[in-house]
Specification:
Sig_transdc_resp-reg_receiver; 5 helices; alpha/beta; two-component regulatory system; 123 residues; 43% helix; five-stranded parallel sheet; Response regulatory domain-containing protein; phosphoprotein; CheY-like_superfamily; Rossmann fold
Length: 123
């Protein structure tokens, strides 16, 4: 069997993080999680991920700053923004910091799984 694909869930809401983690574990992904942008940067520095699910509103470093910092390091891991404030950003705003696509909150977990599969099957 192939190695499990690695997903980093960057989300400060424990409820969303726990639900997302449980759903992706059922799909046989290897899951790490972070509650703020600093933790995301620490984890990305130590481990390669197949996809990052990035909340836009996180403490210490928001998802937009975090995505830009990841790209500034030359890392091209797919980043999927998760936000309840999608109306505050255009797809151009997300692309400008290196975010591949976004999912609105409340999350549709079927769409979440499809999106993660889309990015992990290519790698």
């Amino acid at each position: 069997m192939a190695d499990k694909k690695k997903v980093l869930i960057a989300e400060d809401s424990s409820v969303i993080q726990t639900l997302t983690k449980k759903i992706l574990l059922i799909q046989n992904y290897d899951i790490d999680s972070a509650k703020n942008g600093k933790q995301v940067m620490d984890k990305v520095a130590k481990k390669n991920y197949d996809v990052i699910l990035m909340d836009i509103n996180m403490p210490q470093m928001d998802g937009m700053q975090c995505a830009k910092a990841i790209r500034d390091q030359g890392n091209d891991v797919p980043i999927v923004a998760i936000t309840g404030n999608a109306r505050n950003y255009s797809m151009e705003d997300f692309k400008a910091v290196g975010i591949n696509e976004f999912l609105p909150k409340p999350l549709d977990f079927d769409v979440l799984v499809e999106t993660v599969k889309k990015y992990t099957l290519v790698n």
